[in-house]
Amino acid sequence: MTETSALQAERNRLDAPVDALTRLFFIFGSPIAHVRAPVVWSTLMKRYGVNAVMLPADAAPAQFEHAMEGVKSIANVDGLIFTMPHKIAAMKHADALTERARRVGSINLLRRGPDGTWEGDNVDGAGFVAGLRADSVTLEGSNVYVHGCGGVGQSIGWSLAMEGVASLTLFDLDWQRAATLARSIAEQSHVSIRVGAPDMSTIDLAVNASPVGLNADDPLPFSVDDSPHHAVVADVIMEPRTTRLLAAAHSRGLKVHHGRNMMNFGMPIAASFFGLPESFDWNGAAVQK
Amino acid sequence: MTETSALQAERNRLDAPVDALTRLFFIFGSPIAHVRAPVVWSTLMKRYGVNAVMLPADAAPAQFEHAMEGVKSIANVDGLIFTMPHKIAAMKHADALTERARRVGSINLLRRGPDGTWEGDNVDGAGFVAGLRADSVTLEGSNVYVHGCGGVGQSIGWSLAMEGVASLTLFDLDWQRAATLARSIAEQSHVSIRVGAPDMSTIDLAVNASPVGLNADDPLPFSVDDSPHHAVVADVIMEPRTTRLLAAAHSRGLKVHHGRNMMNFGMPIAASFFGLPESFDWNGAAVQK
């Protein structure tokens, strides 16, 4: 019996969660306590016989640079996921970027290549769009509002612009951030773009891409009182599953689209980016709808 | 149901190995593939309901500084273990040292205190001595040979000197390293100390504290052909369990002491240092003898 197979036998006997050969993935966020990625990814890795875990990494912005240099220096770290507020800061840690990540200006994924360099991607928007499509939401010709133009809002804005929407209205508390995104999208697409708060009665799809709603006592990110009856209201917040915004939309009889869809439909794309088995059943029993 | 308890419920339903609240411990080593700490510690943490895992961190010496700064920057990292070759380099990452760690000049444990500072300890020697005692090896009045004066050899040398042995003979391929350890022990104990290869016929307890024997085709670290029949031969190498040295000693009818004892008897001391449950049954079913 080789050393490695002896260790494997001991691991199996003890049903240990990790061993010396376990490959490490981290999700960086701040706060981190609400993220579902460690549970969901690690469960699927175990179920599919991949000796890897997705670990929570609680790093405040001031600690992020050191933490990133550190985990990249550990040879058995294969990939990283970024959630708020690190998606933009993470970008400079990529040696190369996918086309969509370069366009968006932020990354939510970073993988180590065979040559040791790190490649960044951003699949938030692609996952969000895939979720809307699966939920039969029409995008072509729609008037869309994106509230919040941080990492996730940028990714969603870009992806929607590429899906044939009629107009995009972009809002951010930092007006400059919304304007920058608008200018950048306008340079590469023909979608009609406005910056600022919209006339909600003209909006077919309203998306909260801001962190407002993470805390139970947050105000509504925006009002849906004037939304037309056919409007769809989407939130990127995963926990709580039904935010105050979605509850308000639901009580008005509007169609709601939960934040978990973005992760559930982004995960197969991310898994493929990380080189994990394509058969990963992300939308099966392991994933809470 | 709070967000955290919802996450906990999902984790339980899926039997996930980690979740967003999991506390992280790392064992740093290079190579790392043979270390048993991830399996053994993580199993016990799980068994005792501690939401934590012990992860392998494969960091070459050139990457060690970055990797250390990084993991210390992650807020949910509570403690670190060091194995070869990092025990000496790790010391400068401690804000404070226990008395025995200061004496030895290397650490194998580092914990984050409530105030965010890091304290280092070295329990290799204490674990090794506890293992010998449990194996009924007499130390008082013995003539002891320690082969290898790196981190673990230093810790063992110091601990044996404090246990009333008659003489210590210290050897290292780097003669200066053995001489430095000898001088340092001589300043604080009255044990008789020699540096160099011993007359093995006078040695009651011979300890391999070098990495020689980790690989199947390594030579013997030293010969036991001239050892007296009552001699005990100990190895610090855990994997393979029976090194070529121990096999040679066994075939001569000498008493052998396996490397795993140092970890098995050091672990309760380490667990206590990390603030883990004192009831941890390190020497029960989870630990392979």
Automatic annotation (TrEMBL), chains A, B:
Statement: the UniProt record of this protein carries the keyword Oxidoreductase: yes
CDD domains for this protein: NAD_bind_Shikimate_DH
Domain (Shikimate dehydrogenase substrate binding N-terminal): residue spans on this chain: 27-109
Claim: Repeat is one of the keywords in the record: no
Matches recorded under Pfam families: Shikimate_dh_N
GO-annotated cellular components: cytosol
GO biological process entries: aromatic amino acid family biosynthetic process; chorismate biosynthetic process; shikimate metabolic process
UniProt KW keywords: Amino-acid biosynthesis, Aromatic amino acid biosynthesis, Oxidoreductase
Protein name: Shikimate dehydrogenase
Organism superkingdom: Bacteria
SUPFAM superfamilies according to UniProt: Aminoacid dehydrogenase-like, N-terminal domain, NAD(P)-binding Rossmann-fold domains
Pathway noted in the entry: Metabolic intermediate biosynthesis; chorismate biosynthesis; chorismate from D-erythrose 4-phosphate and phosphoenolpyruvate: step 4/7
InterPro entries on file: Aminoacid_DH-like_N_sf, NAD(P)-bd_dom_sf, Shikimate_DH-bd_N, Shikimate_DH_fam
One MF annotation (Gene Ontology) recorded for this entry: shikimate 3-dehydrogenase (NADP+) activity
